[in-house]
Design brief:
The structure holds two protein chains of two kinds.
Chain A (H helix, E strand, L loop, with lengths): L1 H17 L4 H9 L11 H8 L6 H9 L21 H20 L3 H17 L8 H8 L5 H21 L3 H24 L5 H21 L6 H17 L3 E5 L4 E5 L2 E5 L3 E5 L2 H19 L1
Antiparallel strand pairs in A: 1-4, 2-3
Helix pairs in contact in A: 3-9, 4-5, 4-9, 5-6, 5-8, 5-9, 6-7, 8-9, 9-10, 9-12, 10-11, 11-12
Chain B lengths: L1 H22 L4 H8 L8 E9 L7 E8 L4 E8 L7 E6 L5 E4 L1 E2 L2 E2 L2 E5 L4 E9 L6 E9 L1
Antiparallel strand pairs in B: 1-10, 2-9, 3-8, 3-10, 4-5, 4-9, 6-7
The chains are: A mainly alpha, B alpha+beta.
């Protein structure tokens, strides 16, 4: 009889063991420096804010559609990789390079894209999340401009998988850094382009609209005040918020209308937002965003 | 006799513990992945969402995203059986005003095209109508 109980206990133990962390996950958790221990916070709240942050790809598409030419000098050079020695910097710059990769992809600058891909893979490996980048497939897709859709799809899926993984591992702090790095890089690119095209109202509005996203990012950083690195970046982002506070975004709701066209519910959005932003505001935001970005990529 | 009872108890508890998750299993991740290639041509993939009503335990599944003025978004739905299997996606603005729905005049539509005219945080809410499987997936894409 004892042997029956022992067999059951062993079986239950095996089931339980099946759910334990894999060695690489454990290595990942052990390898974190300043972000070693996440605070005791509601991960669900953090994850729900994280998923709101829009993809930087939207900005790259806007720039291309508005006729802005490709400019490699706006990006963080992939050669800066060796400068990133802490996991804090690695996670931030993984986000930065993610935005840069998206930008090169949208402009079909595959040679540059492959350089970013190599730096991304390296940073991801160092953070023990390299398993989410199938560099061979992405590299193959990147060599042919006809594969743009697949390339965009697979890189977006890879970054989504990383964020999901980090969140399920209770390491959402790294996800926050990744998304913040990506957002800041997109902000910086938009600001640099807008500073050379002051009459472009759409770009100016796009910068002003970032107020909404910055507010969400600040909420996220608020959970990690105890971390020295995060607190320092929070201070910089708070300075940026002060510049954004001068911008007014007015939202007017008006009921939408809908109709079915070829099996798709097509919505006519009758609500509007207006963004009040001056040239001076754009200059102030550009200056602060650039200062923060230099700190991150240097 | 006493040992027999203990053994039987362990056996039953183990059986219940191991079988419960299987009974309410919903492979929403598969549905979400299957939905990505179904985004209409020209749309760039942004996010995939799992829609698991946990066999009726959940009335709704909700996500949020910042939609941007001047961008057209598409949200599609995938489920087993009939097109949406009773799953309805509704978009609300940050003030919880309804801006879009996949249920129009009682008809369940499997995709919404939403050209956003007002930047802000929006809630993407999935609800379940009728006696469907309350299990599916969804994908969000965009184009300019």
């Amino acid at each position: 009889m004892k042997s029956v109980i022992l067999a059951f206990a062993t079986a239950l133990l095996l089931v339980a063991c099946g759910k334990s962390k894999k060695p690489d996950e454990q290595a990942f958790l052990n390898s974190l420096d300043s972000t070693k221990k996440g605070p005791s916070i509601d991960e669900e709240v953090i994850n729900s804010i994280l998923q709101q942050i829009p993809s930087p790809l939207e900005i790259s598409v806007l720039l291309k559609e508005s006729g802005t030419k490709y400019n490699f000098s706006l990006l963080n050079t992939p050669d800066n990789l060796s400068k990133y020695n802490s996991n804090f910097k690695k996670a931030l710059n993984l986000g930065v390079y993610g935005t840069d990769l998206g930008y090169t992809n949208i402009y079909q600058q595959n040679k540059d894209g492959i350089k970013y891909l190599a730096s991304i893979k390296s940073l991801a490996n160092e953070l023990n999340i390299g398993q989410f980048f199938d560099i061979e497939t992405i590299g193959r897709l990147a060599t042919n401009s006809k594969n743009l859709d697949s390339l965009l799809l697979i890189t977006t899926e890879n970054f989504n998988s990383i964020n999901r993984y980090l969140q399920t591992q209770g390491r959402a702090n790294l996800s926050v850094l990744l998304l913040t790095g990506g957002w800041l890089e997109a902000m910086q690119i938009t600001c640099q382009v807008a500073s050379k095209d002051l009459k472009n109202k759409e770009l100016r509005e796009k910068i002003g609209e970032q107020k909404i996203i910055l507010e969400q990012i600040l909420l996220l950083f608020g959970f990690y005040k105890e971390d020295e690195n995060m607190a320092s970046l929070l201070k910089d982002l708070t300075d940026l918020k002060a510049a954004f506070d001068k911008i007014n975004i007015t939202y007017t709701y008006k009921e939408s209308t809908m109709e079915v066209v070829n099996g798709v519910a097509v919505i006519k959005d009758n609500s509007t937002t207006t963004v009040d932003i001056t040239d001076k505001d754009v200059q102030a935001i550009t200056s602060i965003a650039n200062t923060i970005r230099i700190k991150i990529v240097s | 006799m006493y040992m027999k009872k203990i053994t039987l108890s362990i056996f039953l508890i183990s059986l219940i513990a191991l079988s419960t998750p299987l009974a309410s299993q919903c492979n929403s991740e598969n549905f979400a992945s299957a939905c990505i290639p179904k985004l209409a041509s020209g749309f760039n993939f942004l996010k995939s969402y799992k829609v698991d009503g946990e066999g009726g335990a959940k009335e709704k599944v909700e996500y949020s995203y910042v939609f941007t003025k001047g961008t057209q978004y598409m949200i599609n739905l995938c489920a087993s059986g009939t097109a949406t299997d009773g799953i309805v996606v509704t978009i609300f603005d940050s003030g919880r005003n309804k801006v879009a729905s996949s249920k129009i005049n009682g008809q369940f539509i499997s995709a919404i095209a939403y050209p956003c005219n007002a930047t802000g945080i929006y809630y993407i809410q999935y609800t379940f109508d009728g006696a469907g499987g309350k299990c599916g997936g969804s994908a969000l894409g965009f184009k300019r």
